Amino acid sequence: MQKFKFKDLLPAFLLALICGVCVFLLAGTYSLTRESIEKQQEAGAQERKLTIFPNARSFETFQYSDDIRAELEATGDVPDEAYIAFDENGTALGYIFVNSGFGYAGQIQTTTGVDSQGKIVMVIATAASDTPKLGKEVEGRPFLDGFTGLSTESEIILNKDVSAVSGATISSRAATACINHARAAYLKFQEKGLIR
After folding, report:
1. How many domains would you assign to the chain?
2. Of the candidates 73, 48, 75, 69, which has an alpha carbon nearest to the alpha carbon of residue 59?
3. Which tens digits make up the pLDDT trace of 119-133?
4. Helices 169-191 and 66-75, interaxial angle, to 10°?
5. Whether residue 63 is found in the same domain as residue 21
6. Residue-number span of the structural domain to which 131 is assigned
7. For the chain, first and last CA: distance in Å?
8. What is the rounded CA–CA span in Å between residue 25 and residue 5?
9. Residue 91 and residue 41 in one domain
10. Are 113 and 87 found together in one domain?
11. Would the pTM of this model clear 0.85, i.e. be above it?
């Protein structure tokens, strides 16, 4: 019978030590850069809102009850974020809905602007982790401009109301689903008298 030797465990011990040091360094890097990353994300979100409603002077988080949230959750239409855009006189210019879904190879986030008449003003999409030259093409204006002017009254159907990006049908479908979730949330808020 072979006798146990400490040197047999040495490679495993060194590997565990290296992994522990790497985890510690990654955690430290994250804690040092977290605040900066959050500020950049907030600045990017504000820029997207102002791109959709350039005449807005303020954006307020849309407030709605837990009952309405439960109804939206039941249909899968809860927005990640919802805002009201106001002009300098405090008049509502429209509404912004941020929704996310999974495309071909990563998350897609849409920021959808809807005016007070229920028409889509503009959509901005980010697909940072999706496949370059395929899924990321849903970020492009040729695809997103197809949503501009569409009504929130009926479901938006891919390749009927708006054309899918060639070679990126899955990501196009995911972005369209996000926009339909925004549309459904707008209609629910209108139904509940939160939008007049």
Report:
1. 2
2. 48
3. 999 999 988 665 556
4. 150
5. no
6. 53-191
7. 84
8. 32
9. no
10. yes
11. no
